[in-house]
Amino acid sequence: MALEGGPAIVDTLSASPTRRPDRGASASGWLQVWRERWRDWRNRMVADPAFQRRAAAFGPTRRFVRRDAAALFDLMAGFVYSQVLLSCVRLRLFERLADGPCPVPRLVQATGLDEDALRRLLAAAVAVQLLDWRQGDRVALGRLGAPLPAQPGLLAMVEHHATLYADLADPLALLRRDRPAAMAAYWPYADHGAATAQLAATDVAAYSELMTASQALVTQEVLAAYDLRAHRVLLDVGGGEGAFLVAAAQTAPQLSVRLFDLPAVAQRAQARFDAAGLQGRSRTHGGDFFNDPLPTGADVVSLVRVAFDHPDHRVLQLLRNVRRALPPGGCLLLAEPMAGERGAEAMGDAYFGLYLLAMGRGRPRTADELSALMREAGFTDVRRVRTRMPLQTGLLVAR
Ligand SMILES: CC(C)=CCC/C(C)=C/CC/C(C)=C/C=C/C(C)=C/C=C/C=C(C)/C=C/C=C(C)/C=C/C=C(C)/C=C/CC(C)(C)O
Ligand SMILES: C[S@@+](CC[C@H](N)C(=O)[O-])C[C@H]1O[C@@H](n2cnc3c(N)ncnc32)[C@H](O)[C@@H]1O
């Protein structure tokens, strides 16, 4: 069965194909040839069960066998671990333990789960380091659970992932796009229909709240990496409810802020600016950032978690629109999680690659791919600014 509107989705996705050169492809030709030969030879060895047995028995190679076996096991079990995390979030265990260790019987009472089931979950959560045992039949936050109570955005993200897990229950159906994905309904603007700008308050509420809750993860990285104090007016395009602009205005007191988003979202941002006491320093504009002119007057424009929602030709259209709104020498900040980040490779092409497939539009891009699109749209001096947590966002700055 073809998904309603399927052909349009197929066209948009194939208009933006993911082609990842090997990370070593920048190496000179002969080096790359040898690197590939070495990998092919290694793979032939590793594929041989007799070699696997010998390598596991031999002291110096045993740790590599154990490491790769554990990595493969985690790939297989990852979904199970994510359900442990989701269960803890739904039972509000992280909030309940935020003030310190708690006796298990009290958690039985608080969660309403039967004791056996709760103990099974607690043991699982301890095993993946979300929780930790304490003497006297008590449980506490573990190393990986400890940051969570202070990050409501992360807790909201975990809950939101139930939608993605449902879409991934049949991953080949998702890849073949022969069944509607629930994630597509969650992000109604991804449809790109003529009616995008007419989305109602009820259509945008859920995703706008999630983006606001999780914005702090991105904001703190961008503001730590880029000093906005040299600018006068910042326009955040696709700025959601304005959480990034509120934080920017707090770090740069001279800055006026403008937000452009769909009308129903811009309305939500206006309420947030008013609540933050930014009436005199803020303006919101509702419209379609592909087809409507963007407001002029800003010397810096930001696109935060916007480009990866869209195929290349649309990103180009948006970047050209941004360029038209900037004065000569004006500055563009593009911040979003990027593909191919060293140490966070899985986040880009594996996580966001499939997330955006479920959403029905867009793709993760490397910093080089985004830079190329920015240059094609007429931006110059495109440079990469390192962020402390590439897992949360990368940052490109251009003139
Ligand atoms: C104190 C002593 C002695 C030692 C301590 C040693 C030490 C320093 C340990 C480090 C402890 C520490 C400070 C840990 C901090 C951990 C942090 C900050 C973890 C942060 C994790 C962030 C995560 C997991 C972020 C996840 C983000 C996600 C899943 C974002 C998803 C975004 C989506 C789906 C966006 C959608 C938008 C769309 C549609 C694509 O446009
Ligand atoms: C993934 S959200 C990011 C929001 C915010 N920048 C953040 O990081 O939290 C993408 C934003 O782009 C807006 N958007 C999508 N398509 C749009 C369009 N055609 N015109 C204007 N805004 C649009 C959405 O309403 C949404 O607020």
Automatic annotation (TrEMBL):
Domain O-methyltransferase dimerisation: 74-135
Keyword 4Fe-4S: no
Matching PROSITE patterns: SAM_OMT_II
Keywords: Methyltransferase, S-adenosyl-L-methionine, Transferase
Name of the featured protein: Methyltransferase domain-containing protein
Annotated InterPro entries: COMT-like, COMT_C, COMT_dimerisation, SAM-dependent_MTases_sf, WH-like_DNA-bd_sf, WH_DNA-bd_sf
Pfam families reported for this sequence: Dimerisation (PF08100), Methyltransf_2 (PF00891)
A GO MF label: protein dimerization activity
Keyword Electron transport part of the UniProt annotation: no
O-methyltransferase C-terminal domain residues: 167-379
